[in-house]
């Protein structure tokens, strides 16, 4: 463990989906489709060129719970190698590896594999299987045990929606933030008051502990209370729009035109994010496939069935919202062909 671990850089991180082989692939398996490493690399390189600050692999969007631990290292290593070969080696495009298991030992095994495969940080989901009887003390002891032995710095991933509605109190974050190997958190609960109580807590060293929102639709209000950026699913298909919004949120002195642009961006991002709120991972994969031409929009693993319910008809209902953000994305691509300024 590094004696002085650094928190992940501020900005827009993209929690990338895991791409699986399409039904037309000769290696397709309906129960456990294999990785599509070429699509994975193509998507990652596009995001790196668009200006996101880093990639989260095997988060909730990455279907971490659908991938056997022995396979995680293969994808991580392949992705790190392909990024390095294309000139996006660390620190230009760092990787954060998610864990989503309740066992301290298995979490540490995944973190060790992630470190060996080239990841710089671990994003550890709060263990919630036994949420009704888990205490704040138990959560603190669990994260302390993981952080004590992890070979890479970790962040606390608080997403009650996928962890049995387990709750982590702001006071628990304050206590865990003192651990030198716990360097931040991702908050995906949507509670701005709880986020504020962590991100503005004067007892927390905010140069050592970074607070990220998991919701791009709340980026502007979150950053007004000291949030350092977002780990946001819509950055998979509108990366430049999210990075531009982040950039405008960071500036203390905006022109009238920039203030209006920031407001318009946040409004359109918030409207567009409702696609993910409704359809989750299948919605993200559908958008990446239809808008960016990468991956199979049916390419999830069981028990997800892939593709948004309603297919073309449901997709058509979102075009009015999506087209407005796509206009902004195209405009930003012309203005910043080498990536949006951060």
Give the gist of this structure:
This protein is α/β, with parallel strands linked by helices. It is built from 11 helices and 8 strands. Strands 7-6-5-4-3-2-1-8 form an 8-stranded parallel beta sheet.
Features:
Aldolase_TIM, Dihydrodipicolinate synthase, 11% strand, DapA-like
Explain what the structure shows.
The protein has 342 residues and is an alpha/beta fold. Helices cover 44% and strands 11% of the residues. The protein has helices at 37-50, 69-85, 104-117, 136-149, 170-176, 192-199, 219-223, 239-250, 256-272, 274-292, 311-335, and strands at 11-15, 54-57, 95-99, 121-125, 154-158, 182-187, 210-213, 229-231. The chain has an eight-stranded parallel beta sheet with strand order 7-6-5-4-3-2-1-8. Strand 3 (95-99), helix 3 (104-117) and strand 4 form a beta-alpha-beta unit. Helix 5 (170-176) packs parallel to helix 6, helix 8 (239-250) crosses helix 9 and helix 9 (256-272) packs antiparallel against helix 11 (311-335). It is globular. The model has no long low-confidence stretch (mean pLDDT 94). This is Dihydrodipicolinate synthase. Pfam families: DHDPS. InterPro entries: Aldolase_TIM, DapA-like. It comes from Purpureocillium lilacinum.
Q: Tell me, briefly, the overall form.
A: globular
- State the low-pLDDT regions, or none: none
How many helices? Answer: 11
The SS-based structural class is alpha/beta
Task: Walk across the major sheet and give the strand order.
Answer: 7-6-5-4-3-2-1-8
Helix content: 40-55%
Oligomer type: single chain
Give average pLDDT, whole number: 94
- Number of β-strand runs: 8
The largest β sheet comes out as:
8 strands, parallel
Topology as H/E string? EHEHEHEHEHEHEHEHHHH
Pfam families: DHDPS (PF00701)
Organism: Purpureocillium lilacinum (Paecilomyces lilacinus)
InterPro entries: Aldolase_TIM, DapA-like
Protein name: Dihydrodipicolinate synthase
């Amino acid at each position: 463990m590094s004696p002085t671990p650094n928190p992940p850089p501020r900005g827009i991180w993209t929690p990338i989906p895991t791409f699986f082989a399409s039904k037309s692939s000769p290696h397709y398996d309906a129960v456990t489709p294999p990785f599509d490493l070429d699509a994975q690399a193509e998507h990652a390189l596009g995001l790196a060129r668009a200006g996101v600050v880093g990639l989260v692999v095997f988060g909730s969007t990455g279907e971490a719970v659908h991938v056997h631990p022995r396979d995680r290292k293969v994808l991580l290593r392949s992705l790190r190698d392909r990024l390095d070969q294309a000139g996006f080696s660390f620190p230009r495009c760092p990787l954060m590896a998610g864990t989503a298991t309740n066992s301290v030992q298995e979490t540490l095994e995944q973190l060790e594999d992630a470190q060996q495969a080239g990841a710089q940080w671990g994003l550890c989901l709060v263990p919630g299987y036994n949420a009704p009887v888990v205490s704040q003390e138990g959560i603190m002891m669990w994260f302390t045990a993981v952080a004590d032995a992890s070979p890479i710095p970790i962040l606390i991933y608080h997403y009650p929606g996928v962890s049995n509605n387990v709750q982590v109190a702001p006071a628990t974050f304050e206590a865990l933030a003192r651990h030198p190997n716990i360097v931040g958190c991702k908050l995906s609960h949507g509670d701005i008051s709880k986020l504020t109580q962590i991100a503005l807590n004067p007892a927390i060293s905010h140069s050592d502990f970074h607070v990220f929102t998991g919701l791009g639709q709340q980026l502007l209000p979150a950053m007004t209370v000291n949030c350092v950026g977002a780990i946001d699913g819509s950055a998979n298909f509108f990366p430049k729009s999210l990075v531009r919004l982040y950039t405008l949120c960071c500036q203390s002195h905006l022109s009238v035109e920039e203030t209006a642009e920031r407001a318009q961006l946040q409004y359109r991002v918030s409207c567009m994010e409702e696609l993910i709120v409704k359809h989750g991972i299948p919605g993200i994969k559908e958008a990446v496939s239809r808008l960016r031409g990468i991956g199979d929009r049916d390419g999830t693993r069981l028990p997800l069935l892939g593709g948004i319910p309603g297919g073309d008809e449901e997709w058509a209902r979102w075009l009015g919202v999506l087209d407005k953000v796509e206009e902004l994305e195209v405009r930003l691509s012309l203005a910043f062909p080498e990536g949006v300024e951060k």
